[in-house]
Write the structure tokens for this entry.
Amino acid sequence: MSEFRWSPRPDEIVFEAIRASGPGGQNVNKVSNAVHLRFDIRASSLPEAVKARLLTWPDQRISSDGVVVIKAQDSRSLERNRADALARLVELVQAAAHVPKARRATRPTRGSQQRRLEGKARRGEVKAGRRKALD
């Protein structure tokens, strides 16, 4: 999987307008501009492999019953917060869809080992030169 392109269907996402926390003057208690986005992983149209990776993903936004909850409250506009929450959901799914390349164990070359030991010896000489001379 080189580049995983995915966007959720509108029926897979539930938006809930909530009041934003933090400063905001009189307006903060009256207007619900923050958004809670809820996305059920198990009931989604994602490939099974991506679902499995997401369900085991160590992210606090994913609940134990497999629902992603994203809170967006950076903007004062409800629409911008909805777009931000949606973008963060897509980013989370794309990160889970990325399978890291398996690391192959290699051994250091003889030259690199020699250079490392020479550097250590040189550093030891510098430190030895700082010591007081013992008579």
